[in-house]
Amino acid sequence: MALWAGAIGAVLFVLVFLADGWSRPDYASARHPISALALGRRGWIQTTNFVVSGSAITAGAVGVLLDGPSTLLGVVLTVFGLALVASGLFRMDPMLGYPPGAPAGIPEEHSAQHRLHDLAGAVVFLSLPLAVAIGAFTLPGTSWRIVSAGLAVALFVGFGWFGRAWEEVSPRLGLIQRAIVIPGWGWLAALFTARALGLGW
């Protein structure tokens, strides 16, 4: 059951931020980061998404930790899930023109809450590529290892790309972030599902 919760949590997270971002008239998915959805009148939707999906993924990670191919993989995935929850508990500051009336750029000074959100986000975007890399060495089956190795490289490169995009206030910031999140969370959902079904394990 915990593994199924993890799979559902990973898929749910992506579906919610895609649908919520698409349906907000003042929100630009290509420009604004996913975390900005936690701001404004409808911010509770993404906040809940962070907390619920992060908790479900943490449950799935504990399932991997107790009955998976690698204790280290389970530990790193647990850290990832908890950091996702923390990303919801601490919101980013308004910026990049969202919500309407927010500064057009990225302010030099940030609130304590934003700094904690940034810290949680850094853990999220470092722990998942690390988990995928561990999977490349520990998951059974050649296919799993090849896919995980390639994805790990892509995610680490993508994380660096997103960091540069943030510093440069790129108009494609949100698009770059989604190019990292969707395949990363997809791998996670596939991992939990395969483990729950006992496929290739």
Please, could you describe this protein's structure?
This is DUF998 domain-containing protein. The chain crosses the membrane at residues 6-23, 44-66, 72-90, 119-138, 144-163, 175-197. It holds the Pfam family DUF998. Keywords: Membrane, Transmembrane, Transmembrane helix. InterPro entries: DUF998 (IPR009339). The chain is an all-alpha fold and 201 residues long. The protein has one domain. 71% of the residues lie in helices and 0% in strands. It contains six helices and no strands. It has helices at residues 2-22, 43-67, 71-89, 112-138, 142-167, 173-197. Helix 2 runs antiparallel to helix 3. The model has no long low-confidence stretch (mean pLDDT 95).
**Class computed from helices, strands and strand pairing:** mainly alpha
Largest sheet features:
none
| pLDDT < 50 stretches | none
The secondary-structure element order is HHHHHH
**Strand-residue proportion:** under 5%
Q: What's the structural blueprint in terms of helices and strands?
A:
Elements: H1 2-22, H2 43-67, H3 71-89, H4 112-138, H5 142-167, H6 173-197
Q: Any descriptors?
A:
DUF998 domain-containing protein; 0% strand; DUF998; mainly alpha; 201 residues; transmembrane helix
Give me a quick take on this structure.
The chain is mostly helical. Helices cover 71% and strands 0% of the residues.
